[in-house]
């Protein structure tokens, strides 16, 4: 269409398109080699039990240290990895690496900590996914009950019935499931009841305003009581300050995660947290 509009608009349009697709292509090519070149690594962010104050789990968060682009944010490359299907091998690497790190916790006497791993839609839908999880658990000696897979409402809603079947197959391996970014996707409460999940993670979008905005506070309180009435552990994401924490405690939230406690850390720094 830009062509028909005449020369000027064509010229204005074209360079921007080229730049964007070039960048995309370069990133895609680079991402292809990232695994082989050992440029991927995991950071770990602690989850804190609000009753005891202890670290009870860590969420593994993927980082890509590209030699020229520095640290590329997962928000930028996970969608690309999804699009290209690269998320399948990358996701398996994440799972294996997280389980291998857990072995180091067990050696250090911290084998009670749970490891939380994000799963993407494409990975979850992959026919081999359940077998991959099973194999990684066996090969790494990971106690299944200490592994929690984070899934989102949006990816489950694609095909609810087959998602539920798949979730049950995962539960049969002994792993646990958490619903990540809760409240931002669309799902109905009827489905929530059918999902064999253990945990709800309230998206930080809602947590951000709880100390100032009565609507946010009311929403978070509602999610907490919803979770508790379904016997789910409730985790608040994005806890950035004392005021957030104070409201969440008053509301009876179980577990919290956020910059107030710690940013995601490289493994040695995480180990030094103690907890
Ligand atoms: P998520 O699973 O919801 O992870 C939480 C994100 O919130 C992380 O961003 C974390 O650094 C950030 N965060 C934690 N506390 C705070 C806080 O107090 N304030 C603010 N503003 N942010 C906070 P990150 O590491 O950039 O990851 C972004 C998203 O990328 C993740 O959201 C997840 O959806 C995806 N992701 C990360 N690692 C993986 C992975 O290994 N596999 C897959 N499939 N997705 C991943
Ligand atoms: Mg997550
Ligand atoms: Mg989240
Ligand atoms: Mg997310």
From TrEMBL:
GO terms for molecular function: cyclic-guanylate-specific phosphodiesterase activity; kinase activity. Residues 24-275 form the EAL domain. Keywords: CBS domain, Kinase, Transferase. GO terms for biological process: cellular response to nitric oxide. This is Histidine kinase. The chain holds residues 578 to 852 of 852 of the full protein.
């Amino acid at each position: 269409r830009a062509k028909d509009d005449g020369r000027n608009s064509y010229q204005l349009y074209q360079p921007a398109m080229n730049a964007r697709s070039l960048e995309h292509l370069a990133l895609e090519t680079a991402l292809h080699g990232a695994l082989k070149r050992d440029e991927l690594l995991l950071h770990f962010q602690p989850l804190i039990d609000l009753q005891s104050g202890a670290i009870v789990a860590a969420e593994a968060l993927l980082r890509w240290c590209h030699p020229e682009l520095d640290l590329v944010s997962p928000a930028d490359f996970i969608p690309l990895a999804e699009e290209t299907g690269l998320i399948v091998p990358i996701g398996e690497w994440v799972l294996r690496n997280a389980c291998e790190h857990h072995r180091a916790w067990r050696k250090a006497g911290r084998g009670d900590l749970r490891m939380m791993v994000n799963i993407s839609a494409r990975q979850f839908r992959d026919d081999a996914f359940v077998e991959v999880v099973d194999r990684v658990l066996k090969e790494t000696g990971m106690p299944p009950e200490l592994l929690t897979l984070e899934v989102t409402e949006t990816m489950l809603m694609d095909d609810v019935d087959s998602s539920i079947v798949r979730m049950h197959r995962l539960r049969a391996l002994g792993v646990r499931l958490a619903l990540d970014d809760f409240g931002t996707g669309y799902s109905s409460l009827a489905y929530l009841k059918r999902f064999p999940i253990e945990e709800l993670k309230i998206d930080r979008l809602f947590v951000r305003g709880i100390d100032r905005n009565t609507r946010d506070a009311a929403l978070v309180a509602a999610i907490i009581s919803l979770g508790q009435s379904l016997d789910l552990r409730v985790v608040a994401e994005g806890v950035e300050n004392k005021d957030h924490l104070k409201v969440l405690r008053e509301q009876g939230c179980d577990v919290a995660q956020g910059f107030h406690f710690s940013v995601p850390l490289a493994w040695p720094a995480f180990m030094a947290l103690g907890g």
